[in-house]
Amino acid sequence: MKWFRFFLDNQAHGKIVVFHHWKHTSKIAEKILKEKQYGDVYLKANMTIEDRVKFTERFNKDPQEKLCLLASIKIGGEGMSMVGASVCVFLDLMWNPAWHAQAMDRLHRQAQVKPVTIYMPMTRDTYEEEIWFRQNAKQTFLNLIYPNDPPGELELSHYPPELLQWLKDNPEPENDGNEDDEAEDDDYIGRDEI
Description:
Blueprint: H1 2-9, E1 16-20, H2 23-35, E2 39-43, H3 49-61, E3 67-72, H4 73-76, E4 87-90, H5 97-105, E5 117-119, H6 127-145, H7 161-169
Parallel strand pairs: 1-3, 1-4, 2-3, 4-5
C-alpha cells in the first residue's frame, strides 16, 4: 500500500472516496489515512440505510478538504450520493465489474459539479491483472447485449515515473496493520464523525 501513501501525499483534489473489498485492506487504509491526518468516515455493512445516508450527507456538506469516506464496494453501491468528492480510489478489485460501476456511479450523481477521477491501481502479473482482464471481457459482452451503454474497455496506464522513484526511496513501514486483523467492524462505528 505504499502507492496509497504516495497518492495521499500528492493528492490535490480535496475529498476522496476509497472503496475496498477486503476488511484487512480497509484497516491498513484507515491507518494510513490517520497517519496522513485525513479525517475519515467509515461506512459499514451493519449500519442502517438511514445512518449511511446521514454519514454521506455530512461528508458531502463538510467544508473540510482533507476528508476521506471509506466504504466497502458493496456498501458503496446502495443508492447513496457521494458527490462531495471528485476522486474515487478502489483498493481492491472484484470479479464482477457491475460492483465497480455501481460504486463509481455514487460520485456521478446529478448534484456533482466537479469532474470525477477514478483510480484502480493494480500490480501487473498478479491475480489483480487477471481480474482486470476478466472484468473487461464481461463488460465487452454486456456491451454486445446493451449497445447504447458506454464502451466497457478501460485503458491500462503505467505508474508515473515520480511514483516509481518515490516507491524506491520510501521503504515499507515495519507494521502496516497486519497484527490488528482480528478487530471487528463494530470498532469503526462513528469514528471521526464529521
